[in-house]
Specification:
The complex is a heterodimer.
Chain A: E1 2-7, E2 12-19, E3 22-30, H1 35-49, E4 59-63, H2 69-86, E5 89-93, H3 95-102, E6 109-115, E7 120-126, E8 132-140, H4 141-147, E9 155-159, E10 168-170, H5 175-182, H6 202-211
Parallel strand pairs in A: 1-4, 4-5, 6-9, 9-10
Antiparallel strand pairs in A: 1-2, 2-3, 6-7, 7-8
Chain B: E1 5-10, E2 15-22, E3 26-34, H1 36-40, H2 47-69, E4 78-84, H3 88-105, E5 109-113, H4 114-120, E6 132-137, E7 142-147, E8 153-158, H5 164-174, H6 182-191, H7 212-227, H8 234-259, E9 264-268, H9 275-288, E10 291-293, H10 297-300, H11 304-316, H12 336-343
Parallel strand pairs in B: 1-4, 4-5, 6-9, 9-10
Antiparallel strand pairs in B: 1-2, 2-3, 6-7, 7-8
The chains are: A alpha/beta, B alpha/beta.
Chain lengths: 212, 344
């Protein structure tokens, strides 16, 4: 079983190939605004480096949000097109979930966060079994902070970004662990693989306020 | 010679489209999914919403197109994709999908300029004859292009401010026509009479256009009439506005044909669907013994068939993109050749 893992939901490209439960190759690199230009090119280099062809891949595991809207679309479009045209299965997961699974510390609760600007973040609280006790959402950092109050300080924030006045454990995806944890998750029809933005567009938000 | 099948992909604005064209002129199958009803509610295209719909629909549109053509992806010789100009987030979805299709199936990837696509929509009617002048008119463009040969674009004139389609939509808004207002103005103009006096914009010796002054003139006219307590005869205003636009466009186009000693005129772009403009140009060309070609109405608006048609000639010329192809919101048609030279 050869699994191609793709995450482009932040300014980083996290990609790897896991063969029969073992990671054989990976790329973890920040590309920032160049991510859309580089993502598929680097993924193809990596597949070649693993001495594989696109058709050798059995499953694609793609992170479909939340995060940068554009970034999400890059990974999701690559994954769904690849899977559609080569008739492969797709497993989707959330960026926050990947962050919780990768965390190797012994804290009881894990609080992955991604900056959503203007004091807001995409965040969730996961327990040790990586089950969300606060579901992934678009929330103000202040509100999330107060939600952590009853966690008896046995938790840590995880992010690949920096936040002022907030101690965060830096996120380093453990692709092998993520893939092995979620490998038996039910697959999605490639056409139905879609981004999870967790946030409406500003035009929709404005429209909704006007209706109210 | 072996038949060449090009799969075109177009997502530059609010239409998700895929098409297969044989030998650059025979449309095998086209699927266009328009988002117009979604954006209507917002009074214009909302880029983020457009991008979200593209990503949702892109593989479905491609699959439908292949099914309609009764073809498999491995029968395709090249994948042509619009990489600009347009909304960068929208373009991105088409570009990523095209790159992935090309990579996964080992098919050449062909970068296509959206405006070149509009020009090559004419090939789906009859072969282009050179040298020609192309009048490219759309929501974002108003250009006169001189073409000596395939993919040889020399811009001889363009708009200094608003594009003509943009001006139509703005005038529509002044008289409270909901988005997209251009086609309504065209219809009204057909019914109304040219009774309002509007200035002929940038009536000079250049091949350039300027429409912002005309837009202001319409705003002032509507304002003054209201001040006087006169009701606006919307259909007549539409007719007067359209006549002014058509007059200046035809005047400069015909002069360009004469100055460049060219006997072939083609029109391209969304505004090429405009009835009055088509009729007037046809009339004038007949009189001057100039051949005139315009795309069918469904090929004037954004579609992937024109991208595949343009992509066919790019394919023959050896234009290829690698997996780092990236969308570009502004992309000059005239620079196309220069860019390709640099890549060689």
């Amino acid at each position: 079983m050869k699994v191609l893992y793709i995450d482009t939901t932040t300014s980083y490209l996290y990609t790897g190939i896991v063969v029969d439960g073992k990671l054989i190759v990976e790329i973890k690199k920040e590309f920032g605004k160049d991510l859309s230009r580089q993502a598929l090119s680097k993924i193809s280099d990596m597949i070649k480096q693993a001495k594989l062809k696109p058709t050798d891949i059995d499953k694609i595991m793609v992170v479909n949000g939340p995060g940068s809207f554009t970034g999400i679309r890059v990974g999701v479009t690559i994954a769904k097109t690849f899977a559609y045209t080569l008739k492969k299965e797709v497993i989707t997961l959330l960026s926050l979930e990947a962050m919780a699974i990768s965390n190797k510390n012994e804290k009881v609760f894990k609080v992955p966060i991604i900056d959503a600007r203007r004091g807001y973040i995409y965040g969730a609280i996961y327990n040790q079994e990586n089950i969300p006790v606060l579901k992934p959402q678009y929330i103000s950092l202040e509100a999330l902070k107060s939600a952590t109050n009853h966690l008896l300080e046995d938790f840590e924030y995880i992010s690949n970004q920096e936040f002022t006045d907030l101690k965060v454990e830096s996120y380093n995806p453990n692709i092998e662990k993520i893939v092995n944890t979620l490998i038996s998750r039910e697959g999605t029809n490639p056409h139905a693989v879609n981004p999870v933005y967790l946030k409406q567009t500003e035009a929709e938000e404005k429209q909704n306020t006007e209706i109210i | 010679m072996k038949d060449i099948y090009i799969l075109g992909i177009e997502t530059s604005c609010d239409e998700t489209s895929a098409s297969i064209v044989k030998n650059g002129n025979e449309e095998i199958a086209t699927v266009v999914l328009s988002q117009i009803d979604i954006h209507k509610d917002f009074g214009g295209v909302v880029p983020e919403i457009a991008s979200r719909h593209h990503v949702k629909n892109i593989t479905i549109v491609i699959e439908e197109c292949l099914e309609k053509a009764n073809m498999e992806i491995n029968q395709i010789d090249g994948i042509a994709v619009t990489y600009g100009p347009g909304l960068v987030g929208s373009l991105l979805v088409g570009v990523e999908a095209a790159k992935t299709l090309a990579y996964a199936n080992n098919i050449p990837l062909i970068p296509v300029n959206h405006m070149s696509g509009h020009i090559y929509a004419n090939e789906l009617e009859k072969p282009l004859e050179f040298p020609l002048i192309a009048l490219v008119i759309s929501g974002g463009h108003t250009e006169l292009i001189y073409m000596k040969d395939h993919y040889n674009f020399e811009k001889i004139g363009g708009t200094l401010d608003d594009a003509v389609g943009e001006c139509y939509d703005k005038v529509a808004r002044i008289v409270n026509v909901p988005y997209p207002g251009g086609p309504t103005i065209d219809r009204w103009a057909y019914e109304g009479k040219d009774t309002y006096s509007l200035p002929l914009p940038l009536n000079d010796d250049s091949y350039n256009f300027s429409f912002s002054g005309l837009k202001s003139a319409v705003i002032n006219l509507v304002h003054n009439e209201k001040q006087r307590g006169n009701e606006i005869r919307k259909k007549d205003l539409a007719a007067s506005f359209q006549n002014t636009v058509v007059e200046i466009i035809t005047k400069k186009t015909m002069r360009a044909l004469k100055d460049y000693q060219v006997n072939h005129l083609i029109i391209a772009g969304g505004v090429a669907a405009n009835k009055v403009l088509r009729e007037r140009l046809m009339e004038l060309c007949q009189k001057e013994n100039i051949s005139f070609s315009c795309p069918s109405i469904q090929h004037c608006t954004d579609n992937a068939a024109m991208i595949a048609a343009s992509g066919y000639h790019a394919y023959l010329l050896g234009h290829r993109a690698d997996l780092t192809l990236n969308p570009q919101s502004s992309l000059e048609l005239a620079n196309q050749k220069v860019v390709n030279k640099e890549e060689d």
